[in-house]
User: What shape does this take?
Amino acid sequence: MIRVNLSSDYMEGAHSAILSRLCETNTQKSAGYGLDEYSEDAKEKIRTAAQCPTAQIFFLSGGTQANLVTLDALLKSYEGVIAAQSGHISLHEAGAIEHGGHKVLTIPHKNGKISAQDISRLINGYNSDENRDHMVKPGGVYISQPTEYGTIYSKEELSRISAVCREAGIFLYCDGARLAYALGCSENDVFLPDLAKYCDAFYIGGTKCGALFGEAVVFPDKDAFPHFFTIIKQHGALCAKGRILGIQFGVLFENGLYTEIGKNATALARRAQKEISALGYETFVNSPTNQQFFILTKEQYAALREKAAVSFWENLPDGKIVIRIAASFATTKEDIDEFISVMKEIR
Amino acid sequence: MIRVNLSSDYMEGAHSAILSRLCETNTQKSAGYGLDEYSEDAKEKIRTAAQCPTAQIFFLSGGTQANLVTLDALLKSYEGVIAAQSGHISLHEAGAIEHGGHKVLTIPHKNGKISAQDISRLINGYNSDENRDHMVKPGGVYISQPTEYGTIYSKEELSRISAVCREAGIFLYCDGARLAYALGCSENDVFLPDLAKYCDAFYIGGTKCGALFGEAVVFPDKDAFPHFFTIIKQHGALCAKGRILGIQFGVLFENGLYTEIGKNATALARRAQKEISALGYETFVNSPTNQQFFILTKEQYAALREKAAVSFWENLPDGKIVIRIAASFATTKEDIDEFISVMKEIR
Amino acid sequence: MIRVNLSSDYMEGAHSAILSRLCETNTQKSAGYGLDEYSEDAKEKIRTAAQCPTAQIFFLSGGTQANLVTLDALLKSYEGVIAAQSGHISLHEAGAIEHGGHKVLTIPHKNGKISAQDISRLINGYNSDENRDHMVKPGGVYISQPTEYGTIYSKEELSRISAVCREAGIFLYCDGARLAYALGCSENDVFLPDLAKYCDAFYIGGTKCGALFGEAVVFPDKDAFPHFFTIIKQHGALCAKGRILGIQFGVLFENGLYTEIGKNATALARRAQKEISALGYETFVNSPTNQQFFILTKEQYAALREKAAVSFWENLPDGKIVIRIAASFATTKEDIDEFISVMKEIR
Amino acid sequence: MIRVNLSSDYMEGAHSAILSRLCETNTQKSAGYGLDEYSEDAKEKIRTAAQCPTAQIFFLSGGTQANLVTLDALLKSYEGVIAAQSGHISLHEAGAIEHGGHKVLTIPHKNGKISAQDISRLINGYNSDENRDHMVKPGGVYISQPTEYGTIYSKEELSRISAVCREAGIFLYCDGARLAYALGCSENDVFLPDLAKYCDAFYIGGTKCGALFGEAVVFPDKDAFPHFFTIIKQHGALCAKGRILGIQFGVLFENGLYTEIGKNATALARRAQKEISALGYETFVNSPTNQQFFILTKEQYAALREKAAVSFWENLPDGKIVIRIAASFATTKEDIDEFISVMKEIR
Assistant: This one.
């Protein structure tokens, strides 16, 4: 019998404060397409949180959508985007970036993170190649915070990547699908004003951070894309009832709820990591956020699957198996206790 | 002072039954990406309603998205889609179909509707043109039910269009952004089983018919697109929390709610039309559904805008102005009474 | 028996001077991809002829290719291009522009020509439309000189179209597939320096004007597209032996050969038009260039096809048929005499 | 002083027999767009040479164009193509495949060649991945014969790759930009009938094998792409004077000229390799075709560049430099002698 389910952070609906607000505002009438007051209010709150009073902000429905629409706007037709081999756009978006006409130029990663040095090496390689005019020009860099492995860039790392990009005249874009869990992490020193300072664009994830759905794309430069609204529409990404997105982000950015959600889930996930490590399990990556990765034997994995739902991550060369758990706004202390019990039982 | 707002059918949240269900199910856990039980249940209800037990069904977020993803799957790279000059894909989707690589081959319309004869003429013109191999091949037909002008195709008209398409070996696709209002219209004789019979694909609109957001794309042929899931993902159109769509459509297709919503709004809109016509106003189109179009003088329009919110539709050559009102799930008898009062006052 | 063939201007090889030069230079070695001295020399000659010493020039293989690569570079992702309903890009390029992601925004034409007024009307319509952010933004204008009907824009007309474009901040692009025949026409007052002055880009057609193949795309602004070389490559439009194009254009722009070719063919075509009109045939369009259009009865057309090869143009509502003849660099006085004889016989 | 130039195989015009035929046929008139008798004759000769009487054949202008147009036709919208990391489409086509919407799925190579085993591994990895519906589906395999490194696949290797593809239901496509040099190589056992048997599509390169320009795309299955003509047009890849391509391929496939060109150049290149190796130079790859790769010290390279033109290939980690020479239809015994002398001098 499955006693606990920690397989992902998008298994439930939304934070209760969001549902309440949707119910309260339900019959009020507003303009469509995000031109409503709820959306305007949410944008203003995000601008305040990011200390970027002139930022352009747009609400989209999902993460792959945010990546493809934004990168389509940022990249020139002959440009590609640099990303980690493990990046979401590299592996798990069904080729959305290529479908939009752009190559993903992959570089090695360490626990999901790429380095300013490797970015620099790729750019220099391109610039010094005699055949560069026959090649895809690197137009920008894609990172995610946290990464696919739950790791986070420090402010120092982010600023170095940003400096390489600005030196080369290319953009830096950050995928923040799970940004709340970085913001809510005690080791983290990259906050919204830092993203606004170092990136040319980033998105604040809602879907995986307590909203029903929705992501907020932020362009710190107010003049970045005067026609981004039309670009959104052209990709089928414009919500007729845009208010639904505005209302949700309005709640998330009220009284620090967004960071609060991240803090709770991250604390729960790290307690699990600490106690499960103490049981003698090896962790696959030292993740400081809401995703945690453990290495199990085949037998342990088989036993685990009878009692708990987790995410299969990968097979290791030695035959062992990596699993991932994720905590969300809806994860409880009891869920974590139960999962630790299960891990104890199968040890 | 604005006393009543009938400017569109996407100004409010969702039908209360939908919100209730979202609240009830909120903390239950489910699989992502539409692979959950709520979505499966909703699909089954739609299959039943359409009397098409093997239909493939996919939930997407919005109408333009449904059109572009589905047409991208239906069209071969060298094909275009036939549509009315007034069609939503022709005018108001920011070139989404062309951005996906396909020409919209426009033909004349009558109150938003195109005829089997005009479709046939275009196909024959293509087939008999010596230069056809240098031209865009018509690959299918796009219609909407109801149309942009609120008019509806009869079963006879639909079956004739379908016959022309099948004879030519091309597809028929129906945009049902406001389908509830056709289904809820007393003159209508095209029901879901008819769409499943005559079309190769169609979508059942949620966003403009009482849902927070969401459209259900239906392929009557179960073998139509084995990889449509990946096509959706590639367009950034896959919801991580797909259950949110499934839950909503589950409610809409329970106890006939979808048609009920359409019936109420249509009845209200038509009462407005009848009484406002009786006041001496001319209607622009004889619409049998939830959208109604009235012709006003410039002076009347100026006076109206002080008291009611409506949608500007177009300027007529004689200087008069066409306005549109739309009723939705949230429109009340009182709203309509108030609007009629306003129209009386400005007469 | 077919006694004479005037069906198009791309039925033969190349002007003999071109073949000679290809033979003379055949074993000399040069750099690839258009970076050779022949290409540089040809570009310099074109810059001189256009009185535009800093123009960027690129040689491509064919007309549709020149249109699609250049328009892809000129148009932003959310923009479409304004063109005549009869334009080559509108009808006879198999949707190449849409395949590249852009809508062709068609406007009416008069004998193939569009007017500054109609362009202005479309732009104003877009700018004043409340829904414009949901629509394709007009990004530029496509014209051809001569047009599909052999007609030519006067300098006055061109300057007015250019003024409308510059006022609106959009580009003007001219397709010169048959430019030699405009330049060689006695009524013409639009020369290369005028195209360089009024257009943002244009191409000088080689394929239909005496070359084996090849078109020269000209950007008067030297800073227009620093990465156009890569854009060409990305479209599969870069010739490895680019010298073949350079050698041909070098010959065409030596001693005025290009205009000379146009002059001869145009003179022959117009003699045909004059004498055939004198026989009582009606012309369909009053074309001043190398293409001429005559109206025949069905019986005349049937008789003609036994004796001469021409191009079928279109069926008229009254059952008559429009044919087109085209003169090229290879057309002789004898060809025209023979064609006139045939027309006399079938009268 | 540069005494000899062996930097590439596309530095000269065309084989003299081709120029002669272009001159002889120059004023004869023919239909456009490849519908002429010269093209038909050339296709028939290729069908005979490939022992594939029903093959569909199309002539295109260049290699990148042939790759992108053919792969666009072969790949479904959600599919990518498997290729060597060193493949021409992977590195040196400016992202043309991605621009057409498809990911290049790279795998490791050995001297430019990929193995059936690595292809199989990628396909199995995809098929067994739980997230495969979120990933790019491998739709086919791209190889080149000879490869970028001049190496060739044996019939055994080709048949094994083909078997893997057919087992997986995906296509095999071969880029034959330099195919003549494989056909003219004494170790080669893959001939045109083998390509027709094992591949779903391949192209026979003209541009780098003695033609002015042109490639012949071959689909062994006559029913492969009924609308490939329109697909070509849509990519701007249709030559108005298609005869120019037909005439050239007609000459190349007359009396075995194509293989003859390959044989001569390959023999010259291999003599260079043998004698230069004997001088003590190391070869970078053991290439059996017209491209040869030598490893030089920095000093040798500097000295070489004063006396001969070659192609820089890459820097080795130890600071040495790889150069490439290529022999073509125009390379003479004297060129090779001179190059050997130079290499002797700088030793």
The interface with chain A takes residues 33, 72-73, 76-78, 101, 133-135, 137, 227, 229-231, 233-234, 238 of chain C (CB under 8 Å). Chain C has a mean pLDDT of 97. Chain C is about 40% helix and 20% strand. The domain at 16-255 of chain C is CATH 3.40.640.10 (Aspartate Aminotransferase; domain 2).
